[in-house]
Design goal:
The chain is an alpha+beta fold. The protein has 2 helices and 8 strands, in the order ββααββββββ. Helix 1 packs antiparallel against helix 2.
Length: 188
């Protein structure tokens, strides 16, 4: 164990100085003190590394949170732009409907032609925005695209064929927006 000792040192001129301190009394104590110093240095190094990695982790988490918030804001903005563009495309259709309704002396035949044109304009706008009708003519029932609302017997058609369409279905960008409501042949 180290103990407090005094050492006197003399130089060539005859001067002397006394040094006192906590000195190791054996070589084993010197080695032990060096090991303790090395362990303390390693501990401080590990603490520094841990603090650096914690700081980096916190920065990465903050960056990820900022990215997530920015991406959500961009998605919201993109959806708003798409909706605004669609509504802008619908405005001429609404204008034509207003003109048709505001006629003072409507001619039934002219009104029918006008509404047919407005209907075609509505379909054109929808088709321009990727809306596609589901074709059922000559098709077999497919639950991915059709909703069966009834069955009918028809010996001229095979089982599972679509006999009639009650409401047209639509897809957009390859996804079903609304399935076609159909009547399906069931001869059994």
């Amino acid at each position: 164990m180290a103990e407090d000792k005094k050492i006197t040192v003399e130089n060539e001129d005859g001067d002397s100085a006394e040094i006192s301190g906590n000195l190791a009394s054996s070589p084993e104590e010197i080695k032990s003190d060096n090991n303790d110093l090395n362990l303390l240095a390693d501990l401080e190094k590990l603490k520094t590394e841990l603090a650096t990695k914690n700081d980096r982790l916190l920065r990465l988490q903050a960056d990820f949170d900022n990215f997530r918030k920015r991406a959500a804001k961009e998605r919201t903005g993109l959806a708003a732009n798409i909706e605004q563009n669609f509504l802008k495309d619908l405005l001429p259709l609404l204008d034509n409907l207003d003109r048709a309704i505001s006629q003072e002396n409507p001619d039934v035949e002219a009104m029918a032609k006008g509404f047919a044109l407005i209907r075609q304009q509505a379909y054109d706008i929808c088709y321009a925005h990727s809306l596609q009708p589901i074709d059922v003519a000559g098709k077999s029932f497919d639950p991915n695209f059709h909703q069966a609302v009834g069955t009918v017997q028809d010996e001229a058609k095979e089982d599972g064929a679509i006999a009639a369409e009650f409401q047209r279905g639509y897809t957009a960008h390859g996804k079903v927006i609304r399935p076609s409501m159909v009547q399906v042949v069931n001869n059994s």
